[in-house]
From TrEMBL, chain A:
This is Phospholipid-transporting ATPase. ATP binds at D417, K418, T419, E508, F550, K573, R604, T684, G685, D686, R799, K805, N829, D830. GO terms for cellular component: early endosome; endoplasmic reticulum membrane; plasma membrane; recycling endosome. It catalyses: a 1,2-diacyl-sn-glycero-3-phospho-L-serine(out) + ATP + H2O = a 1,2-diacyl-sn-glycero-3-phospho-L-serine(in) + ADP + phosphate + H(+); ATP + H2O + phospholipidSide 1 = ADP + phosphate + phospholipidSide 2; a 1,2-diacyl-sn-glycero-3-phosphoethanolamine(out) + ATP + H2O = a 1,2-diacyl-sn-glycero-3-phosphoethanolamine(in) + ADP + phosphate + H(+).
TrEMBL record, chain B:
GO terms for cellular component: endoplasmic reticulum; Golgi apparatus; plasma membrane. It comes from Pelusios castaneus (West African mud turtle). Belongs to the CDC50/LEM3 family. Keywords: Membrane, Transmembrane, Transmembrane helix. This is Cell cycle control protein.
């Protein structure tokens, strides 16, 4: 038994690691209160994991080994470790300290950071695990630590307490067996959710009563989906057959959620500790890697090759040189016994390793540290940005990962959600249509709106009873809750009664408020009864029997209520496409016209239908639903099937229109993004017409954009849908292809001048393309579709399921050239595409925080995308690209003289520089200036970047990290390395450089080279710096001063820990020689000369370019830009452009 | 349409940051608190900044100025280098040398030491003082790593423990076969250059010796701080060196290097210190003596000279050469044409680019003007 359960746990753990995608098999049985169900069955204590939450990775004992192991799994660290070990083992020219110290520094800093983070996790864990909770044992309350809870324990939770583990809700202090819960810390939704106690145990609301319960719970093994749970409770009463009740997510109280507005509840623990749904959701997102990192790795490979070839060349040369006996072992320089005895092959190998060690500085440890620091510190500028702070929600941008800063500068495709992202997602009830008669609010709230159809108010009037039925339907068919007084999470506050409507969908609130405007006020839900105040100020009571919840597949929801007169009604509201097929066809004509007109206006429309049920009907439905709810397997499918059966043969009563306004500056932002060469795709679950008008309003489609449609409408309803689709695809393909010249390189420029195309596709057509029924030539059409997509300026995908959004993103992401994609969305339905894209942006919207939490960056509004991409993204990319190139450059010209020196020292691995210089070069002398540069540099001012989106194109396709710039930097580094070495080499043709005739030795030689090197490399950075803040001045001049100071200091003291006092007064003597000074100055000048020349020529060119640009701008401003027309006028006139 | 559950299932992932729960709590707290970003110049990336632009207008004068300055400096360097007089005498005595040091070279190849030979030379013009006397070795790898590490600075600093316990880097010249420590240990010390020179001015049929000053040829910090003799035992240096043996190549122990002069013997012998500063390149010269005393304080007058050489140091075995060099010095040190030429070339390059740039600049300006019109 124990074995099998352990195996099960292993399985569970295993599937925890495996992304939690596959279904968990098997169920678990929980004995409530550990009481055996009958005397005959031996009660076997099952082993479940305890309620300890362990989010920490390390303990005090395993921290060191585990952390070290983790760190050395990184290829770079491992490489440096190898180098270090080689230095320890083999007799190498530089002491192990030179590479050991930086490595030690890096490892220590990382370890401290990770240790600190883990300590925070430990603290958080301890706080959770040691918090006291109350268990019911033997009818008494027992206070215990949270971590002591075992599966099967009965837990008491009081108001405003957090559930310590996943509980099955047994009893509540509320008479109706409900409790209210907020899951703000789980999914960010701050509204109160109602959970229901198991019906048969609701009354057991005292310690004694609950202790008398004998029951078992069978439920599925833990799985991470927060909104799914299936189980069954068997309640045993004295000598009776056990009663079985189904358990669903509404019976499950999740760990991490908080009890609200309920005095206390009892629950039995079913999932504890690491098996709770919250813990199962800990698993991190897959690591996203930026394109820059890939470039770095490619460059690293090049440098590794350089390193290896250098070592090979030197080793070979050494043995060729040594083949002359008088070179190998002259009398003055005899080998040791050991050296003579070693095998030649082994000697060659150690020589090779020694050369590797000598040149290994070409691959800098510190680059990784600096890049990490730059990313980490740089990301603060995003969260600090005042312009991305939103007064309304009182929050600024949020950076969840700093790994992708530079990726923001490389975006080619932007996938955006519509609702809540482009639009505000604050709904306003605009109008409704009852029985084909249009009702509009007396006060026109649409600015400048003038309808061509003449006066609209009371276009006609429906019968009074239909009107009332419609409004009652609005008042009843929803899941809105009322929250009185307390306004902590208030979304919409009703000033008179201090009560708030709360709902997960803002549409519902708008509808309820709309009904209120017409005289029907929803007063709340009490004991399954919904109270509605009608136009005559009477309160009507309806018993809510069932709620057929909304889901994105059905796209509708229903309630079944019983009126006070005993009639049964089903009210249903939903998208027109899901309602119209289910109502009497003769009723829909007039309403359909209204719905379509509303959709064109950009409103969100919902249709309302009803059906009266007889007692028999209801009993049948009740039974069916009860059965389905009891089902342990495939409950969802069964439920969906029953819902489908129920929601048929309804009568349409009307439709509603709700406006969702565009977010401020959404249009300007989209325009700017498009001007920056990004292609913007809108992926929405909304109706095509609504989405299209939003696209026009947000200037995604221009008036001259030719629209290509691939929708259900254009497909028709015929059997030959797919053939028709293929025809269309081919037609569009033909249409688009000749328009474009064959060379794809011009693509970016060409679309700006030639005809622009927009594509509209809906979800069902997309799935037809992606998952065709006949598999023949499917991939062919798929690629045609993709080609069409990629050639359109703007693409609108409507009626998308969340997974389809991700599919689209993946499709584009994996096309040739692997363009960088960015997804932006605000709701839980956007999470999949946010996770799929290279960069995921969450809008901190009204639909909870799911998107923001799963995103890489979260901003309050869509308009902030402009600054995030055009300014921050651009700057970060330029900064990090420069950082990377500079690092390779400075290490190449650092190590090249060392390599050249081997040719003059008999290939003996004699280091040119002193060990201190070797170690400190990357750590101290040249690290801070580049770090400051890569944090502060603004080669173009932020204002210019924002106002000239075209500048974004300049860095597209990873322009600064292509092979060409890399080659330029490498050549520069090589040139400078040659100048440094040979300049000093020629100077040393006569080594008496002081006016008293004294001579300099090899360490002076190295010091001169090194001084020139440090100055040149730092001044090169100074030349590249266009934005000199005091910090740049401080670190650049400070570093140079520090170098000089350090050199004096290092050479000024006999260091007792050093074996050789090589540098003793070398630097001081060096600066006493005038010739050395002159050489240093000259060589610095020569090294920087090409760079200065290039800069000057560039500036001359740019000046000319700027003049041209400003000329053009002037002429541009003369021709007036198209004025921003009101959304609706545009839409109508633009309609003609549709194919 | 795909089932929505998969979306919710994978969508409810937690941020990978430190401590999911802690983070949630922190974000919640942050949301509650006023977290408006600081409006400082730094956080908003609006620090006041100097934005220099190297335009043609500023660069052109710069190029011309730098070019002219370099030309001037180059001329100065060139002339001061040209005024330095040097006289090189190769006495390695290899095949075809033709002078009487060849026999000494052969003798040294056979292992004999102490052979003397003389070189006669004429100075066509006087060398103004102070004249430095260098020896130059070629194909001699003092910068070889094995050679360069073969020393013990602790021993050389006069440390008594270090004296009797030479560093292991010194081997194979660390101890003698009997295990006695060598002082000074290591290959560098062992291979101390031990040819000696004596210079005679031949005038009026008699040879008058030119006094060669061996003081102040090493760095002051070396001979006074870095190098020092072990503490005297009973006032005697040889006693201090007791328990050590001389390097195998040396004819006598370190304390006999300049036995008559207690300030120039042992480890603080300046010839020794000069030797111990290893050269950068395989052909190198080292300062041997200076002529600045007596009748020759103003330099070496023109005339004929004789240089008597004690030929001890074998160089032919590694195909090296050795030379004696008489050279005057200037403010820039010894003769070195490189600096002057480099400055001249760079200066002219600057001026040339200046002109090219001027041309380009003028052309662009013209074009711009045409564009404007």
């Amino acid at each position: 038994m124990e074995f099998s359960i352990n195996q099960e746990r292993l399985l569970t753990l295993w599937s925890m690691w495996c992304a939690g995608e596959e279904k968990r098999v098997g169920t678990r049985t929980v004995f409530v209160g550990h009481r055996p169900v009958s005397e005959t069955d031996a009660y076997v204590e099952q082993k479940f994991c305890d309620n300890r939450i362990i989010s920490s990775k390390y303990t005090v004992w395993n921290f060191l080994p585990k952390n070290l192991f983790e760190q050395f799994r990184r290829i770079a660290n491992f490489y440096f470790l190898i180098i270090f070990l080689v230095q320890v083992i083999v007799d190498t020219p530089t002491s192990p300290v030179t590479s050991g110290l930086p490595l030690f520094f890096v490892i220590t800093v990382t370890a401290i950071k990770q240790g600190y983070e883990d300590w925070l996790r430990h603290r958080a864990d301890r706080e959770v695990n040691k918090s006291s909770i109350f268990l019911i044992e033997n009818a008494k309350q027992v206070k215990k630590d949270s971590e002591k809870i075992k599966v099967g324990d009965i837990v008491e939770v009081k108001a405003d307490e957090t559930f310590p583990c996943d509980l099955i809700f047994l009893a509540s202090s509320n008479d109706d067996g409900t409790c209210y819960v907020t899951t703000a810390s789980l999914d960010g939704e701050s509204n109160f959710k109602t959970h229901y106690a198991v019906r048969d145990t609701t009354v057991l609301c005292t310690d004694d009563a609950i202790d008398s319960l004998t029951a078992t719970i069978e439920c599925e093994q833990p799985q991470p989906d927060l909104y799914k749970f299936v189980g069954r409770i068997n309640i045993y009463r004295h000598n009776q057959e056990p009663v079985a009740r189904s358990l669903g997510p509404e019976n499950l109280l999740l760990k991490g959620a908080t009890l609200k507005n309920t005095k206390k509840i009892y629950g039995v623990a079913v999932y504890t500790g690491m098996e709770t749904k919250m813990a199962l959701n800990y698993q991190g997102k897959s690591q996203k890697r930026s394109a820059v990192e890939k470039s770095i790795n490619a460059f690293l490979m090049v440098y590794l090759c350089i390193l290896l070839s250098k070592a090979t060349v030197c080793t070979t040369m050494k043995y060729i040189w040594q083949s002359d006996p008088f070179n190998d072992e002259p009398w003055y320089n005899q080998k040791t016994e050991k050296e003579r005895k070693t095998f030649k092959i082994l000697r060659m190998f150690t020589d090779f390793l020694s050369f590797m060690v000598l040149f290994n500085f070409i691959i800098p440890v510190s680059m990784y540290v600096t890049v990490e620091m730059q990313k980490f510190l740089g990301s603060f500028f995003i969260s600090w940005d005042k312009e991305m702070y939103d007064e309304e929600i009182r929050e600024g941008a949020l950076v969840n990962t700093s790994d992708l800063n530079e990726e923001l500068g490389q975006v080619e495709y932007v996938f955006t959600d519509k609702t809540g992202t482009l639009t505000e997602n604050s709904m306003r009830f605009i109008e409704c249509s009852i029985d084909g008669h249009k009702y509009k609010d007396g006060i026109s709230e649409v600015d400048g709106f003038c309808h061509t159809d003449g006066p609209l108010k009371y276009y006609g009037k429906a019968e009074k009873c239909r009107e009332e039925l419609f409004l009652r339907a609005l008042c009843l068919c929803h899941t809105v809750q009322i929250k009185e007084g307390d306004t902590v999470d208030g979304l919409i506050v009703n000033p008179e009664r201090r009560c708030t409507y709360i709902s997960s969908s803002p549409d519902e609130i708008a509808l309820v408020k709309g009904a209120k405007k017409y005289g029907f006020t929803f007063l709340g839900l009490e004991n399954e009864y919904m109270k509605v105040k009608n136009q005559k100020n009477e309160t009507e009571m309806y018993q809510r029997l069932h709620v057929l919840n909304f889901d994105p597949v059905r796209r509708r929801m229903s309630v079944i209520v019983r009126t006070s007169t005993g009639k049964f009604f089903l009210f249903c509201k939903g998208a027109d496409s899901s309602i119209f097929p289910r109502v009497q066809q003769d009723e829909i004509q007039q309403t359909k016209v209204h719905v379509e007109r509303n959709a064109v206006d950009g409103y969100r429309t919902l249709c309302v239908a009803f059906k009266e049920l007889t007692q028999d009907d209801y009993d049948k439905i009740d039974r069916q639903l009860g059965e389905a709810k009891m089902a342990l397997q495939d409950r969802e499918e069964k439920m969906a099937r029953i819902f489908d059966d129920i929601e048929t043969d309804m009568h349409l009563i009307g439709a509603t229109a709700v406006e969702d306004r565009l977010q401020e500056h959404a249009a300007e932002t989209i325009e700017a993004l498009q001007a920056a060469g990004m292609k913007v795709w809108v992926l929405t679950g909304d109706k095509m017409e609504t989405a299209k008008s939003t696209c026009y309003a947000s200037r995604l489609f221009q008036t001259n954009t030719e629209l290509l449609e691939l929708t259900v409408k254009t497909m028709g309803d015929s059997e030959r849908k797919e053939d028709r689709l293929h025809e269309l695809l081919l037609e569009y393909h033909k249409k688009l292809l000749p328009d474009f010249p064959k060379n794809r390189g011009n693509l970016k420029r060409s679309w700006t001048v030639s005809q622009e195309y927009g594509l509209i596709i809906d979800g069902s057509t997309l799935s037809l393309i992606l998952n065709p029924s006949q598999d023949s030539s499917s991939s062919h059409y798929r690629s045609i579709f993709l080609q069409i997509c990629l050639k359109c300026t703007a693409v609108l995908c409507c009626r998308m399921a969340p997974l389809q959004k991700a599919q689209i993103v993946r499709l584009v992401k994996n096309t040739k050239g692997n363009p960088i994609t960015l997804s932006v969305g605000d709701g839980a339905n956007d999470v999949s595409m946010i996770l799929e894209a290279h960069v995921g942006i969450g809008i901190k919207g009204k639909e909870g925080r799911q998107a923001a939490r799963n995103s890489d960056y979260a901003v309050p509004k869509f308009k902030h995308l402009r600054k995030l991409l055009l300014a921050h993204g651009h700057l970060y990319y330029v900064r990090i690209a420069h950082l990377v190139q500079y690092f390779f450059y400075k290490n190449l010209c650092f190590i090249l003289p060392q390599f050249l020196y081997q040719f003059f020292c008999g290939f003996s691995q004699q280091p040119l520089y002193d060990a201190a210089y070797l170690t400190m070069y990357n750590i101290c002398f040249t690290s801070l200036p580049i770090l400051a540069h890569s944090l502060l540099e603004q080669h173009i001012s932020i204002e210019t970047l924002m106002s000239e989106p075209r500048l974004y194109l300049k860095i597209s396709n990873n322009a600064m990290l292509q092979w060409k710039p890399f080659l330029y930097w490498t050549t520069l580094g090589a040139f400078e390395g040659l100048v440094f070495f040979f300049g000093v080499y020629f100077l040393f043709q006569n080594s008496s450089l002081e006016d008293n005739g004294k001579v300099f030795g090899n360490w002076t030689f190295g010091s001169i080279v090194f001084t020139i090197l440090v100055f040149t490399v730092t001044l090169k950075l100074a030349l590249d710096t266009r934005f000199w803040t005091w910090m740049n001045h401080f670190v650049i001049w400070g570093s140079l001063a520090f170098y000089v100071f350090f050199s004096f200091f290092w050479g000024g003291i006999i260091w007792p820990f050093l074996k050789q006092q090589r540098m003793y007064f070398v630097f001081a003597h060096m600066v006493m020689s005038l010739s050395t000074w002159l050489t240093i100055v000259l060589l610095i000048f020569i090294s920087l000369f090409p760079e200065i020349l290039l800069i000057v020529f560039k500036n001359v060119k740019r000046k000319k370019h700027q003049k041209k640009l400003s000329n053009r701008k002037e002429s541009d401003s003369l021709s007036s830009r198209p004025s921003i027309r009101p959304l609706l006028l545009r839409t109508f006139s633009d309609e003609s452009n549709v194919l | 349409c795909g089932p929505p559950r998969a979306v919710l299932g994978s969508g409810a992932g937690w941020p990978a940051g430190p401590g999911g729960e802690a983070q949630v709590r922190r974000t919640a707290m942050a949301a509650a608190a006023q977290n408006k970003p600081d409006n400082t110049a730094f956080t908003q990336q609006r620090l006041p900044a100097w934005q220099p632009l190297l335009s043609a207008g500023t660069a052109l004068p710069l190029f011309f100025c730098v070019g002219l300055a370099c030309l001037a400096l180059g001329l100065g360097l060139h002339f001061s280098s040209a005024t330095i007089r040097e006289r090189e005498l190769d006495y390695s005595g290899g095949a075809g040398g033709g002078h009487n040091c060849s026999s000494c070279a052969n003798a040294s190849r056979a292992g004999a030491a102490g052979c003397t030979c003389s070189l006669h030379f004429e100075l066509a013009e006087a060398l103004p003082g102070p004249v430095c006397l260098y020896y130059e070795l070629s194909n001699y790898y003092q910068n070889h790593r094995r050679y360069g590490v073969s020393r013990d600075d602790r021993q050389l600093s006069g440390d008594s423990w270090g004296l009797s316990n030479p560093a292991k880097e010194c081997s194979p010249f660390r101890t003698d076969p009997q295990g006695m420590p060598i002082a000074p240990c290591g290959a560098i010390a062992n291979s101390l250059f031990n040819d000696t020179f004596a210079l005679y001015h031949l005038a009026n049929g008699k040879a008058s010796p030119v006094p060669l000053d061996n003081r102040g040829i090493s760095w002051w910090t070396d001979s006074n701080i870095k190098f020092s003799n072990p503490e005297l035992v009973n006032g005697s240096l040889p006693a201090a060196f007791k328990g050590t043996v001389k390097p195998p190549n040396w004819p006598h122990a370190a304390y006999l290097l300049d036995a008559g002069n207690p300030n120039n013997t042992g480890f603080i012998n300046e010839d020794f210190i000069v030797w111990m500063r290893t050269a950068a390149l395989p052909t190198f010269r080292k300062l041997y003596r200076r002529v600045r005393q007596g009748n020759f304080s103003s330099g070496l007058p023109e005339g004929s000279y004789r240089l008597d050489i004690t030929y001890n140091y074998p160089v032919l075995s590694f195909q090296g050469t050795k030379k004696v060099i008489f050279s005057t010095v200037s403010w820039m040190g010894g003769k070195n044409p490189f600096l002057g030429i480099a400055y001249l070339v760079f200066g002219s390059a600057c001026i040339l680019t200046g002109f090219v740039m001027l041309a380009v600049h003028l052309r662009y300006q013209q074009q711009n003007q045409m564009d404007v019109e």
